[in-house]
Amino acid sequence: MDPIRNPYAPGAGQRPPELAGRDTELDMFTVVLERIARGRPERSLVLTGLRGVGKTVLLNALRSAAVRKRWGTGKIEARPDIELRRPLSAALHQAVRELGIRDDDSRDYVLGVLKAFAQRSAGKDAKLRDRWQPGIDVPAITGRADSGDIEIDLVELFTDIAGLAEDSGRGVAVFIDEMQDLQPPDVSALCAACHEISQLGLPFIVVGAGLPHLPAVLSASKSYSERLFQYRRIDRLDREQADRALRSPALAEGADYTAEALAALYKATDGYPYFVQAYGKSAWDVAPESPITEEDVTVAAPAAQTELAVGFFGSRYERATPAEREYMKALADLEILEEAPDANGVATKDLASVLGRKPQSLSPARDGLIKKGLVYSGERGRIAFTVPHFGRYLRAQPEL
């Protein structure tokens, strides 16, 4: 098989040639955009799921759908060490530019408010040379979205930008990846701003993506967040969808798989989209001809496993401290003892028992792993890996 024509894309956030299994979310978002365009009330959207299920890919696909409707869009990736104000300013600046507003006065006023909001990140009394300059070529408007209280400022800013979009007959959508990493004050402000916009019926939505515990993060900030967003759990592909993700790109290149090869690939990948792409790429490269057979999949498996071990599992393991690694190894062993699937995790009291420690003494390791995005707590007293098959990977590496 010609490696140059290999159609698979096992990269972080790279869109696969066939976005299988996400038609429901794409169709639903199209309805959201159309309803808002007609002045109907709609909620913002939150996508949740483990790593490797394609949340970022889907987020980008939803953004493309909004762009095709000529909405203004912007995207950020949240980080726990960076406040929301600055990256959000850049995203909203792009959204306003995409709207292409011809009324210079209205556009410049909103950009002036946005500039004041952005510059407030350096502190109201900061010297001009110390203020971040967002690249907005209009004077800052004082007295609007520049109080320093992120919740007040965000409500005012969203209202002004949404009003500008409404006047143009379009809307604005902001896309936030790794949403669980927003700082608590920013989460609270974002919820409050979305709530205000929703009550006013303005054409502005936030589309967030994050780990499975993101709904709990939002709920802890504002109790009404449970009703503020539409929540969509993004999971692994079923057998039919996984086969489609493999066969459609292959057929487009004049190739195919045997039924036995497809069965072997699903058993190896469990339908996780990132794994499907990694195994598909390796199987294509080793197969001498079409159709790709079960034997080809067997030969390709070590290369795919090495790819995942280095780029998907190993890099994450290396970020952990010795205490955190000990915690993860115990979690991996308990998955087998309790026969717990990756998504459900294990009881933290059992972890403490296995390690011979008091539960409170494990809190620093647990909290550190949560901050690094390696584990999450879907419910009180339980913990799970955020990465599919991570426990399996650790159990297969006795030297770690």
TrEMBL record:
Keyword Hydrolase belongs to the record: no
GO molecular function, one term: ATP binding
PROSITE patterns in the record: CYTC
Superkingdom, taxonomy of origin: Bacteria
Keyword Transferase appears in the UniProt entry: no
InterPro entries, A to Z: AAA_16, Cyt_c-like_dom, P-loop_NTPase
Domain (Cytochrome c) ranges: 166-332
Region of interest: Disordered: 1-20
Key words of the record: ATP-binding, Heme, Iron, Metal-binding, Nucleotide-binding
Name listed for the protein in its UniProt record: ATP-binding protein
Species, as recorded: Brevibacterium daeguense
